[in-house]
Amino acid sequence: MIKIGIYGYGNLGRGVEAAIKKNKDMELVAVFTRRDPKDLVINTKTAGVYNVKDVLNFKDKIDVMIICGGSRTDLPVQTPNLAKNFNVIDSFDTHAHVSEHFEHVDLEAKASNHTAVISVGWDPGMFSINRCMMESILPDGSSYTFWGKGVSQGHSDAIRRIPGVKDARQYTVPVQSALEKVRNGENPYLTTREKHTRLCYVVVEDGADKARIENDIKTMPDYFVDYDTTVNFISQEELDKNHKGLPHGGFVIRSGETSEGVKHVIEYSLKLDSNPEFTGSVLVAFARGCYKKFMNKDYGCKTVFDFAPSEISPISVQDLLKHTL
Amino acid sequence: MIKIGIYGYGNLGRGVEAAIKKNKDMELVAVFTRRDPKDLVINTKTAGVYNVKDVLNFKDKIDVMIICGGSRTDLPVQTPNLAKNFNVIDSFDTHAHVSEHFEHVDLEAKASNHTAVISVGWDPGMFSINRCMMESILPDGSSYTFWGKGVSQGHSDAIRRIPGVKDARQYTVPVQSALEKVRNGENPYLTTREKHTRLCYVVVEDGADKARIENDIKTMPDYFVDYDTTVNFISQEELDKNHKGLPHGGFVIRSGETSEGVKHVIEYSLKLDSNPEFTGSVLVAFARGCYKKFMNKDYGCKTVFDFAPSEISPISVQDLLKHTL
Fold it and tell me: Cβ contact (<8 Å) for A135 and B313?
């Protein structure tokens, strides 16, 4: 059994916990929280809940620590720190700072003979693996990534910060006609606006100026101004009833030629009822790979590009050859 | 530059040759043929053509030999034999004999300190990788593989062996409604007949009994009897005009749950203008991985389950982190 710790128990931590239950070679040992452990009820009876300050008591009792903090302020500190005493894995997703994060984690993991894996999930994660493999197989071609239909928590938060807004949910929606052009191997040039639209459900305070709020959303730099955005004002009841899930998904597509006029299209797609539960499932599979590399004394920081399928699988290579090849 | 040899110059050998031209770190050195080399014109001016009996002259001049023979009688002999003197890669696809082939190749490759890779292509190959990764991420679920629409050369050959048939082309076609059920996460139980249909274009000799030929096709054991089969009789001209390509493709889909009622669907699909050119492209990418493992003294027989994405990519891990993650 691979003994797992969960560090941080929000949506992602609960997703990791659900994934562990589906894997027979995995066991949740402990959940670490910044809250008072007495206030936290988890879904695994056999695991304990502890405050983060007591984490070092588990130094030799946990094979892999799955760190479920946020990419902006939590992971840049937590992952290198915990790598001093644990094998660690995180879902760091700030593309602009990945190389820097890698260096920090690599330094600590190598110094203490641990194995670390960063940026694991579906994008970055499974989508990155697919982009890499597709481009290796079809070097002469174009790659496209579409996201959605799914909830963007960052965009939902941005709307909630507008004065007069009580609650909001934002869906990123791929433009179907653009997706079809890509699938047909047309290699289109697509602007930001041509790839995705943004669909917003907004609850406002009594008497709020809806026209002003709609304008504030549609003209918001970085988040909305470059997209065709639809704003729907709804009641809190409707939002709670129809928009509380965290579905997501998307598509990675590459089309390329192998000789004059001979085209091929490779597509990888995800349709996810729950973004955090799927991300948690990817983290758990790569935690297995992390532990295998550690057992092989392959220390330092790794990414999804470093793992062979057999490393993340619980099945022996002999059985993979017989049943999966 | 990685120096490549092609052993066998049929459709697949030409597909490998086309793929090498698309990869800047690869160089075709020599093509080996059972024919008289003087009778063979290849598409690479800088490479030589030699008879297979002279292959040992190239013992230290080729980094990886890509073996393009057939799975039934060629590869079981060629791959272990060539592994005594070369790093080798093949597309062996007889599922029932993979473990046996693996053992033979592994023995020779380990004894001579070479790296070998077997069963590389799209199925087995990319589809196998995806089945393995999908099942590792969503252990509680069901996997489905659909093939087509595409030409099955084995089924086309089987029709051509019927008396009175001059030429034939058989397409395997996935049943769209079954595909949709799987995509919707319905986890259907599907019989062979419910997954694929078979579409045949047949050219007959003058005066041949079409009704008897159609019956012979539709009742043929193993090949057609378990499928809904459509037989169209056409002229040789029409077959040559519309059915001489070798398109193929297919779908690997897994749907699974991460907690009660929370479903996810992962799909990997290929749409290929040319089966041999795409298979050749996969072989060339994994030839790069084969050579990297050899340089790391990782000898013996490998399969697609053993390669990390960074091993088959020409791009450095640093650049993958920056641009592909």
Answer: yes
Residues A207 and A175: beta-carbon distance below 8 Å: no
Question: What residue type is B246 in one-letter code?
Answer: L
Instruction: Give the pLDDT of residue B104.
Output: 98
Contacts of B132 in chain A (CB under 8 A): 309-310, 313, 315, 320, 324
Give yes or no for a contact between B250 and B125, defined as CB atoms under 8 angstroms apart: no
């995806």: which residue's tokens? Answer: B130
How far apart CA A50 and CA B147 sit, in angstroms, is 50
Residues of chain A positioned with their CB less than 8 A from the CB of B98: 321-322, 325
Q: Cα dist. A126→A121, A281, A310, B130, B226 in Å?
A: 6, 11, 15, 11, 37
Q: How far is it, in rounded angstroms, from Cα B215 to Cα B231?
A: 9
Strand order in the sheet with B150-151: B150-151, B165-174, B196-204, B228-233
Here the tokens at position A278 are 């799927």
Residue A24 one-letter amino acid: K
The answer to whether residues B285 and A136 touch, using CB atoms and an 8 Å cutoff, is yes
Beta bridge partners of B257: B263
Do the beta carbons of residue A78 and residue A305 sit within 8 Å? no
CA distance B7 to B118: 14
Q: Count Cβ–Cβ pairs < 8 Å, chain A vs chain B.
A: 222
* Residue-wise pLDDT tens digits, B63-73: 999 999 999 89
Tell me how close the Cα of B10 comes to any Cα of chain A, in angstroms. Answer: 16
CB atoms within 10 A of CB B57: 10
Q: What is the pLDDT of residue B111?
A: 98
Q: Is the ipTM of this complex over 0.85?
A: yes
Contact B99 A308 (CB under 8 A): no
> Which of helix, strand or coil describes residue A307?
coil
What does A213-246 look like in DSSP terms, one character per residue? HHHHHHT-TTTTTTSEEEEEE--HHHHHHHS-S-
User: Which chain A residue shows the shortest CA-CA distance from B266?
Assistant: A270
